[in-house]
Amino acid sequence: MYDEHIRASAARSNLDPLLFKHPIEDELLPLFSQDAESPTSVILTGTAGDGKTHLCRQIWIQLGGDPEAWESDDVYFHVNASIAGRETTVHIVRDLTGLPETGKTGAFLTKTDLLEFFAHTIFDLSSSSVFLIAANDGQLVDTWARLNQTNDRIDETGRLLEELLFNDRREEEGSRLKLFNLSRISSAELFDRAAEAFVRHEGWQHCIDEEGADDQLFGSLCPIRRNYELLKSDQVRGRLRALLELCDHNDTHLSIRRVLMLLANSVLGFSGNEAGGIKVPDRLMRAVDVPRIIASQQVAKASIYNNIFGGNLTEHRRNSHDIYEQLGRFRIGHETSNRIDNLLIYGDSDTGLREHFDRFLTDDTFYGANEAYRALQTAYIEGAEEGGEETEQFLEVLVSQRRGLFFKIPESIERELSPWDLTVFTFAGEYLERVLQRIRRGKKIEKRVIARLVQGLNRIFIGMLVSSDEELWLTTGLSGSNAKVSVVLEDRVSVARDSHRFVNIANDISGSPVLRVSFSESNIIELRLTLTRFEFLSRVAEGVLPGSFSKECHEDMLAFKSRLLSAANSRKDASEDDEESQTEFRFVELDEMGYPRPKTVELDL
Question: Rounded distance, CA 155 to CA 489, Å?
């Protein structure tokens, strides 16, 4: 889904292309206008599909460039315009990687000449030229590294680019350059904009206006129509958005292109190769496929709940798209709880679960408990052969039904049936509600949430199943800070505020949550609290062994412990009696309930 392909496809269909305002549009477009403060060059960087080409085209059109010229294969364009009241030549490179070494670079003989001129203009306040350059992640720095570093401006520009990129800054005083890293834009925000444009596109109204018989496109039995209606619903969209927001806070960025692909596949996906003996190309439904899918009773294979995770695609195609790899990490459909599986398997005969079974499966005439599901369910309950064909089919169907439950369970009954039990991140709902939402609203994080994380840290730091959650215990072992069991007490920090000593959760400059341990007003150590780290510490606090969930997180916590110990040692009172400190040690002992207690041991030297 490239910008130029979307426009060409829309033109062939005589429809408007799917468009929405890019999150940086309001800040970017004015930089190339008469009202700009001063002529400024811009670099757009990010992953493929983040909207760089689309933004370059918008600026080209805004400056009076020829739309037809933009549709050519050229990479370099230039146009004269008035910017900030000055006649300025705007040089546009819509793909730095695709820029040829020679030829098609305007008045510049080579790519190197063009980039050297760019390096000169961003430090020359009197220059009448500015640049707009689009480059994918990594390629910008790599391209610069291949240039002649003996040129002072090249070297200076290279250091400026590294400074802006690695410190996540947009500009630096003394240069006429702004760098927009589109990979820093929230995937959840992109989803909001893309999903709204997708479901409101004029093409859907044409489908509704031309609705035919029940078994035709957008008839009452049409799975495409059902998927479209479900995607429009607050329930499905809200739960899908929650997944993308969790991706944002787990160091994962999903581009606009991937989000659009997710939306299209969700509505059109079909997990079969053929319907009525005729192939369904690419496993994506077309209008002509709808009657055959309905007639062959394969509507369940079009489930949006399965399509969202790429369940309709072959394993090879699914693994080739990073968005399905990232959503697959939640393991939705493969993780479950006893209560949820009892609901799916025995719910229609269990008086305590029948209400939920009817609501989520019986009443769902498209993707719920159809005749095929009930036949496989009955065979399974009656003791179908383990490993047999019917058993394997039922287990596959259960994956799809669990995915359906994840999107169907409303917030009103989450305490009784948690959709997050269907994921590998069972604390994700709490992370969303009690951490991310409260930070966004400027509210304090509840003490019990912080206390549980502190208990998880204590168990990792000490190396035993301690029960303390009111203080953070900083300990080392006799062989060093990374000893498996550390019982030499160095310091304690209370969860409750004690002057400038406390443990809390706050947000960093990007708005992401951090676990903050304060020893003094100027001595504060922070740990980025990603979803995985939150889940890890919460599970350890509930008894899971640290190494069994994530070795990487375990190592991260030990590195955090080393930073805390260094900070604790740096604040020790300079007037402390050195002789006493060398002959007195504090150890940690656990009582019968697992609560740690300090014990002082004096050495008689």
Answer: 50
Secondary structure of 445-508 as H, E, C letters: CCHHHHHHHHHHHHHHHHCCCCCCCCEEEEEEECCECCCCCCCEEEEEEECCCECCEEEEEEEC
* Percent of the chain topping pLDDT 70: 94
Residues 270-280 as b or e (16 or more Cβ within 10 Å = b): bbbeebeeeeb
pLDDT of residue 2: 56
Cα–Cα distances in Å, from 75 out to 47, 117, 154, 161? Answer: 18, 17, 22, 22
pLDDT of residue 473: 94
In the structure encoding, which two tokens stand for residue 159, read together?
């250091």
For the chain, state the CA radius of gyration. Answer: 30
Tokens representing 491 are 């310091």
For residues 254 and 323, the answer to whether their CB atoms sit within 8 Å is yes
Length of the chain: 605
Q: Is 41:121 a contact under the CB 8 Å cutoff?
A: yes
CA–CA gap between residue 363 and residue 370 (Å, rounded): 10
Whole-angstrom distance, CA of residue 65 vs CA of residue 77: 9
Over residues 459-484, the mean pLDDT reads 86
% pLDDT > 90, the chain: 73
Hey, how many other C-beta atoms are within 10 angstroms of the C-beta on 597?
11
Question: Which long-range contacts does 197-206 make (Cβ < 8 Å, 24+ apart)?
Answer: 197/18, 197/19, 197/20, 198/18, 198/231, 198/260, 198/263, 198/264, 199/228, 199/231, 199/232, 201/15, 201/16, 201/18, 202/15, 202/16, 203/13, 203/15, 204/228, 206/15
Judge whether 88 and 132 are in contact, CB under 8 Å: no
> What does the block give as tokens for 456?
């998880």
CA angle at 453 for the pair 520 and 189, rounded to the nearest 5°: 95
Strands 513-520 and 76-83, by their bridges, are: unpaired
The predicted pLDDT at position 581 comes to 54
Q: What residues are paired with 475 via a beta bridge?
A: 489
- Output DSSP code: residue 300: G
How many CB atoms within 10 Å of residue 543?
Answer: 8
Residue in this structure with the two tokens 């209008």, named with its chain if needed = 287
Mean pLDDT value across residues 489-517: 90
pTM of the model as a whole = 0.92
Question: Which amino acid makes up residue 406?
Answer: F
Say what the alpha-carbon torsion angle 407, 412, 414, 420 is, to the nearest 10 degrees. Answer: 30
Rounded to the nearest integer, the mean pLDDT of the chain is 91
DSSP helix/strand/coil, 207: helix
Coil vs helix vs strand at 533: helix
Give the separation between CA 437 and CA 527, rounded to whole angstroms: 19
Contacts of 393 (CB under 8 A, 6+ apart): 376
Q: The tokens of 479 are what?
A: 């062989």
pLDDT in tens, 570-599: 866 544 555 555 567 788 888 888 888 888
- Which H or E run contains 181? strand 177-181
Three-state DSSP state, 127: coil
Cα–Cα distance measured from residue 545 to residue 449, given in angstroms and rounded to the nearest whole number: 20
The pair of three-digit structure tokens given for residue 335, joined into one six-digit string? 């993780």
Residue type, 40: T
Between CA 62 and CA 291 the distance in angstroms is 46
- Side chain identity at residue 501, one-letter code: R
